[in-house]
Amino acid sequence: MKLITKIFSLATAGAMALGCGTSSRKITTQEKPVEGMNLYELNLMSLNEAGKIDLSAFKGKYILFVNVASKCGFTPQYDGLQALYSSNADKLMVIGLPCNQFGFQEPGDSSQIATFCSSNYGVTFPISEKLDVKGDNQHPVYEWLTQKKYNGVGDYNVSWNFNKFLVSPNGELVAYFGSKVKPQSEEITSLLK
Known about the structure:
Blueprint: H1 2-17, E1 43-45, E2 52-54, E3 62-68, H2 77-87, E4 92-98, H3 110-121, H4 140-146, H5 148-151, E5 164-167, E6 173-177, H6 186-189
Parallel strand pairs: 3-4
Antiparallel strand pairs: 1-2, 3-5, 5-6
């Protein structure tokens, strides 16, 4: 079974390299999470492809993961995310994860997303490459965040843009928040103690 999976992965990567695939998602070597795996063992690629966002670098801080989009009714939450990050930089890292799976509201490429975030909202927290937060191509970080067998807390469905997952300074999932929960709400800030 492993051999078949490996052959399929290589064939898929080859087809994508030749432009035969329908997805623009890059093939990465990121391992899938396994039960008992720590979140810090997973990786994200930065939006500008400058390298990895090293999650282990944030040990000792809370991490707020937010699937973001540029053309959503919740997009103004970038202001709140930046303010939350700025006022809690000593104990919190915010990571924006662009996703185009909800209403195709993140259609831009990496350069367009980076320009949008910095020009319109002055974003200084890390933004990952565009990724899938659900479905067959769900990114491993989101597999960990949404599945109890990995996070040890619960199963969650990312229902729309600007859903939020808060991870403790010890790498444990603390809470999940829907899109309507604003970044600077008491629901979130009360947990950052």
